[in-house]
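Database export, one record per block. Field names are fixed; values are copied verbatim from the stored entry.
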Amino acid sequence: MTTTENDPLFCPTETILGMIGGKWKGMILWCICRKTMRFNALQRTIPGISQRMLTKQLRELEDHGIITRTVYPEIPPRVEYGLSQHGETLKPILDELESWSRAYLNERQ
């Protein structure tokens, strides 16, 4: 079922959480928000993520316009992932989520 703004069940927040949520996207964005990274550096930084899953998640984030994939014409090829202009607008929101999460986790201890 597709929801639209005219639908009483339409929730824009749910849309964005679907785009950036899941097991790996939060960690991927957390890394890329701090600096542009290459694929292998991302894979080393995120314990437990497979090459296939990292590729899938990066493609989804790129398809949503949140990150960019830059291929440099070098031998061997160099590919870097960074936030797009649209993704940069998420940084303050992700920073707030991080602050809220830290406070929540501290309260729960």
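Remark 1: The longest strand covers residues 67-72.
Remark 2: The first helix runs from residue 12 to 20.
End of record.
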